[in-house]
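WARN no homologs supplied; continuing
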Amino acid sequence: MAMSPKEFRRQVVAPNLDEYDKEYDKIHRAFNAVAAVDAYAAHIYQAAEDAAIDPFAALVPPPPTTPDYTSFRQALAGQRPICRHPRLLAFLGK
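OK structure emitted
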């Protein structure tokens, strides 16, 4: 069973951010934190889909032609500058 976004945030995102905050000079802590935040967007997207909620409804411009979790993260990054950095860093880490 997949974790809910709330549980994912509690078990994965928060601990990674806490560890990075304690050792911000460790590059692996930064990448772990970025990957966790990037994956969190996918969990939010999937939870909305599972609940029959349009995850793009609150985002402008209109939904992309291929509405999936990748395009959701891209749309979110396009609207919220704070979401751009984890998206870019996660891409660079691949």
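The chain has a mean pLDDT of 82.
OK
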